Amino acid sequence: MKAMKRILILILPYKGLAALNMLFNLIQILAGLFSLGLMMPLLDFMFNNNKEALKPKAIEAGSSTDFTSMYNAFIQWMTEYVQNDKKQALLLICIALIIATIIKNIARYLALYYLVILRNRSIENIRKNIFQKILALPLSYFSNEKKGDLISRMSNDVKEVEWSMMSSLEAIFKEPVTIIFYVGTLVYMSPGLTLFVIGLLPVAAGSIALLGKSLRRKSKRNQEQQSNVLSFLEESLGGMRIIKAFVGEKAFRHKFNSLNSSSTLANIKVNHRGDLASPISETLGIMVAGVILWFGGNMVFEGELVGSAFLAYFAIFSQVIPPFKQLSQAFPMVQRGAASLDRYEEILNADEKIYEQSNPIEIKGVNHAIEYKNVNFAYGLDTVLHGISFTVPKNKKVALVGASGSGKSTIADLLPRFYDISNGEILIDGVDIKSLSIHSLRSMMGIVSQEAILFNDTIAYNIIFGLENVSKDDLEKAAKLANAYDFIMQSERGFDTIIGERGSKLSGGQRQRIAIARALLRNPAVLILDEATSALDNESEKLVQQALDNLRQDRTTLVIAHRLTTIQDADEIIVLDKGFIIERGNHTELMEKRGPYFKLYNTYNDDKG
Ligand code: ADP
Q1: In the β-sheet with 382-393, what is the strand arrangement from edge to edge?
Q2: Residue 470: its pLDDT value, please?
Q3: Hey, which end of the chain has fewer CB within 10 Å, N or C?
Q4: Cβ contact 311:191 at 8 Å
Q5: By C-alpha distance, which of 541, 478, 464, 461 is closest to 507?
Q6: What spacing in Å lies between the alpha carbon of 563 and ligand 1's midpoint?
Q7: Is the CB of residue 452 less than 8 Å from the CB of residue 512?
Q8: Separation of alpha carbons 499 and 512, rounded Å
Q9: What does the buried/exposed string (b/e) look like for 29-54 if buried means 16 or more CB atoms within 10 Å of the residue's CB?
Q10: pLDDT computed for residue 432 by the predictor
């Protein structure tokens, strides 16, 4: 029931559609009951021995229940209406049957029509929520949680919820109403017999509930196994180069086979368990039917029930079985859906970690300085930054240098709050960045990273990315300053050229210049540069360097320097080692000191030579 309630909450925004679905279900049920009921006069007229005139048996059998007297009154009315003509009566019944069936089926279609919209809209909502949440989650989430797992949640689990939603909607809106109306009719027709029947049902329902419970457990395990397979696939695809280079095919094949086989096993178990529901409920249903035939038949023999009424009773009863069967199948489905829903909610409830305080301060630019004050930071348990303090005055340039892994990127990532610091403060004009609106903080920053991040779309889209109402002039100006204009113009469709996945159709230097144009267009007050020109040839490097110089003008800049030649003009150079600042000063001072910077500088020049 709890599982059902959770699924119901998903469709809450679409109450209107649910109401329409219920309305048409109701019409469908009533029309169905009516056509089944027509069986009684049909039987009575067909099997009465009088060749010409009507004289139904029901009238003769003198039982005195409400139901019988109502039915007798109906027959009386009908006999008069068709002027005692048997053929007329038959025609009337046939026409009524056809009309009732048409109404029933139109209602059935309309009920499904609204159900389909309801279901698909709710699923759309789930996908939307997951994606929105993914965008809101901190970067740290994606390094811990595997991408394949997210993809699996987005596809497999959403499918499961969809199936389960379909079952539960019918289970909530249709089957119970059908059962109530049908059973109500049965009670009306013969309270004694129905009471007896109802006594039999809890036994059947109980055994099916037990089955559902075990299915939910198995199903959750099954989903996990499937997502393991996807994660592993994702990881293998990403690392194909390495797998081949280190001839790891055999190990990967083994691991995949083992994951694949346990996922298959789990799936087989879930399917077997699910398939049990239907045979069990059918057997139980027929057992109940057999008992009813026996008792009801005896009642007819003893004159307590008219024969035609008993047959109609039995026909209606047989129509009660399918909704019970549907209900019994719906429960396991709902349980499976709930297992997927658990996984969906795990994402929705994942900690966003980077919180904005209420009434955050909007910021437009830097008036005085950015200041790191005694900053410590740990990814998980490993502290990777220790007591980092430095200041970047407005429109000045501070460079971070040091061996790989010394903490340069981490320091830069803290400023746009990709991660939050454990200890210390980062201040902009004296205000802690945690009090600022994250949107305004990130909006005033331009970030050019080592690996230009581009999307499979046009050049213009990649430069404009995220901005609105950018004029063609501004776009071209940015491209020109970034030294990108010429090669853009030379490509097939200019700014409308599609650049391939991650910009694969461009060279490394071209990708960088697009990224720089993107940063230029935003005209950010603060620049974070992860300078990686080492992978570029000399010509490209010069073009990129020029573009960077254009970008840097009049901006407060934090540079991660890989080539020390490009930062000799920095106002302060900070030398890092294992998360500690070991030296600081400008280029001339540091060279004179002949310390770590001097060594780094010479190593670099030696490498070059
Ligand atoms: P640099 O930019 O100087 O090469 P980083 O800031 O990337 O150095 O890394 C500093 C330290 O933090 C390294 O020891 C690195 O292994 C660790 N590190 C970096 N990113 C993560 C991460 N997402 N999770 C855990 N540890 C990380």
Answers
A1: 382-393, 369-379, 423-428, 431-432
A2: 86
A3: C
A4: no
A5: 541
A6: 19
A7: yes
A8: 13
A9: bebbbbbbbbbbbbbbbeebeeeeeb
A10: 94
Pocket test for ligand 1, best of 384, 420, 560 (most atoms within 8 A of CB): 384
Exposure of 262 in the CB half-sphere (CA atoms within 13 A): 14
Write down the H helix ranges in 38-85: 39-46, 57-60, 66-81
Instruction: Give the span between the Cα atoms of 105 and 28, in whole angstroms.
Output: 7
Question: Between the CA of residue 340 and those of 117, 127, 227, what are the distances in Å?
Answer: 21, 13, 12
Going by alpha carbons, the residue nearest to atom 26 of ligand 1 is: 379
Residue 132 tokens, joined = 């929105």
Most informative mutation of 143, 376, 379 for ligand 1 (most atoms within 8 A of CB): 379
Tokens 């020029």 locate to: 546
Enumerate residue ranges in the chain where pLDDT < 70: 1, 48-65, 143-146, 200-201, 203-213, 216, 532-535, 604-609
What is the CB < 6 Å shell around ligand 1?
143, 379, 384, 402, 404-410
Burial of 381 (0-12, 13-18, 19+ CB in 10 A): exposed
Element (H, E) at 582: strand 580-585
Determine the Cα–Cα distance for residues 270 and 217; give it in Å rounded to an integer: 9
* Residue 382, token pair as written in the block: 């490993």
pLDDT in tens, 269-283: 888 888 887 787 778
DSSP 458: B
Q: Is beta strand 556-560 parallel, antiparallel or unpaired with respect to 526-530?
A: parallel
For residue 502, the model assigns a pLDDT of: 74
Residue with tokens 């305004």, as numbered in its chain:
440
Query: Pick from 64, 43, 30, 29: which is nearest to 312 by CA?
Result: 43
Query: What angle, rounded to 10 degrees, do the helices at 175-189 and 15-37 form?
Result: 30
Take residue 309 and report the two structure tokens written for it: 């009424």
Work out which ligand 1 atom sits closest to the CA atom of 406: 3
Q: Which amino acid is at 129?
A: N
376 sits in which H/E element: strand 369-379
Q: What is the pLDDT of residue 609?
A: 42
Question: What pLDDT digit, counting tens, does each position of 90-100 carry?
Answer: 888 899 999 99
Using the mean position of ligand 1's atoms as its centre, give its distance from the Cα of residue 377 in Å: 11
